[in-house]
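Reading group handout, session on sequence-to-structure problems. Before we discuss, look at one worked example. The prompt was deliberately terse, the way you'd type it at a terminal:

> structure MBL fold metallo-hydrolase

The input record follows.
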Amino acid sequence: MVTKVYENIYMIEVVLPENPLKALNSYVIKGKNKSLIIDTGFNRKECIDGLFQGLKELDINIEDTELFITHLHADHSGMASIFKDRGIKIYAGEIDGRLINEMTSMSYWERFEEFKVLFDLERDRVTFSEHPGYKYCLKEPVEFTYISEGKGIQVGNYFFEVIDIPGHTPGHIGLYERNHKLFFCGDHILDRITPNIGFWGFEENILAVYFNSLAKIYSYDIDYLFPSHRNIIRDHTRRITELLAHHKERLGEILYILESGESTVRDVTARMEWKIRANSFEDFPIPQKWFAAGEAMAHLEYLYCTGKLYKELREGKLIYKLK
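And the output record:
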């Protein structure tokens, strides 16, 4: 499905089969000599067919395009190799661009075996082989044109500034058109669903990073915020306020759970409320166990870093408890 969302800007709805996100909003800014595509969909036939059918409806040849990837997740970057093989310029932030290429190596995914023990997910028999990021990511590295905040891309009458918005991933970036008050935000801000803020390592407090990025965008003058999933947002300050309230509630929920005593990441996750069609955590699909545990871990680490919790490593598993 192709929808015109602004002058010379179109949204291609790329269906994501067997995924709770349902679809990716791939945006196309149509220019006279070149067009810019923002994000792709998974590296699987249904997504490839959907994106290229949309480009056909817009009468755009892939050779006349450039690709901008907002962040590393496979539903955004999965088709990059198709563009690489056609000699198309592919923009990405350096942090996530490097991670996208690392994801083509088995050593990247072997870290998930360490996380499985750390999170106490071994008893759930989870495996990274069922993770959509593993199944539908690139299979070989690509050469990116790295682009950072302070740089820009001209397409037709639009000039897009690159904006750093880390949190959902360590190197998430977006595009801001100041004159028309447009912002392409990837998964930074979503409506009706909340972006997954997962655990990326102990190097930084990723939830605090996300809060800072939300505060940064709150002050921007935006009329149309174009997210990668669900509906276009016309009042970004309202949605940011709601997202901050959601995470505050999540943090309070975890503190309440830990009043019952110390717990592993897995057991905190299992007691949290999730909007998923399952009777219990045991019934979650394996990919959703990964995402839920990663989000619980990000919140636990935030509470630890802000002095609310103790933690210790016990037989390879992280144990958290109230101070």
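Points for discussion. First: The chain is about 35% helix and 20% strand. Second: The chain has one domain: 2-249.
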